[in-house]
Amino acid sequence: MQNKNGFKNSGIEIGLYTLGEIAEDPHTGKKISAAQRIKEIIEAAKLADDAGLDVFGIGEHHRLDYATSAPPVVLASIAQATKRIKLTSTTTVLSTVDPVRLFEDFATLDLLSDGRAEIMAGRGAFLESFPLFGYDLNDYDELFMENMELFLKLNKNERLTWDGQFRPSLINAEIAPRPLQKELPLWIGVGGTSESAIRAGRLGVGMAIAILSGDPVKYKPLVDLYLRAGMEAGHDLKDLKVGVTGHGFFSRTTQQARDEFYPYYSNYWAYVKRQHGMSFHLTRSEFDQMTGPETALFVGSPQQIVEKILQQHELFGHQRFLAQIDIGGVPFKKVAECIELLGAEIAPIVRKETSK
């Protein structure tokens, strides 16, 4: 992996992801359009690429308050506007997508991007895709496992004969196009259950843990379960990769970051809870506790963010860190400032320390 100056990056990969939500700005009460949101996401990816970051991810939601229901389409546009940054879904709702179409879409993205496509698969925090695409929620787990197992076969075989419960059979089917990479890199997004960690390990794919709050130490058992399950299944330890994803906001000082981000983060959680039919108000004192030096929320000065990432690296030994910084209606100007700090002041130190 090379940075924008042509020098090889060592240490962990550092990047960004977005879910493409369209939230009101808590200061103005205004929303931007879906068209503007997508344009800003593409511009953020360009800035991340120029800043030498390693990965940019886009989430999938099928609601009017989100702009990215088709991540491979947006990622394909980003591929034409960037040169080196890896492009991934964060996450693909694997239970409600046809694995063949998913493979075709991302194999095409891989060709368009000269081998930069990846997939992070999950079961999704929202359930609107099940009725939208005609799937039964009672098959939640079974759909995920069948689709995962089929995708892994598609990733390895140009022709495939396959039979399952939910999808029509494949009889010596040609699986095209083939990606530029030998195989598309695949990760499973894990929210916090041991079953998901063990599943990712047994399958031998990457595990990306969403750590949004609290003490990161409580997630260490998930990493241990993942690695143990992977090795017991016969996978090489070097192929078992751990990623950490979390919310973030960066400013020159930690106090400035807290003062600027609190209205947006409070807005974000009130908004998310409303989507699930609940009311919620995050107080400033609660927020300040959530952003303390021993917690998982990446809000602060570059120095504090570096310290938090390195503390977690000591715990997990992970290979990738992705931050979600555009939540709660944060305006694009602030997003751009965060990207500049991440690329110029945070990433270089983290890479240096984690490459030792």
Structure commentary:
The radius of gyration is 20 Å and the shape is globular. A hairpin with a 7-residue loop joins strand 6 and strand 7 (170-174). Helix 1 (34-50) packs parallel to helix 11 (332-354). The chain has helices at 34-50, 71-81, 99-112, 129-132, 140-156, 194-203, 220-232, 254-275, 284-290, 302-316, 332-354, and strands at 13-18, 55-58, 86-89, 92-93, 117-122, 159-162, 170-174, 186-190, 206-210, 242-250, 298-300, 320-324. The strands form two sheets. It has an eight-stranded parallel β-barrel, surrounded by seven helices. It has a two-stranded antiparallel sheet with strand order 6-7. By secondary structure, it is of the alpha/beta class. The model is unreliable at 1-8 (pLDDT under 50). The chain is built from eleven helices and twelve strands. The chain has one domain: Luciferase-like domain (TIM Barrel, Alpha-Beta Barrel).
Task: List the SSEs and their pairings.
Elements: E1 13-18, H1 34-50, E2 55-58, H2 71-81, E3 86-89, E4 92-93, H3 99-112, E5 117-122, H4 129-132, H5 140-156, E6 159-162, E7 170-174, E8 186-190, H6 194-203, E9 206-210, H7 220-232, E10 242-250, H8 254-275, H9 284-290, E11 298-300, H10 302-316, E12 320-324, H11 332-354
Parallel strand pairs: 1-2, 1-12, 2-3, 3-5, 4-5, 5-8, 8-9, 9-10, 10-11, 10-12
Antiparallel strand pairs: 6-7
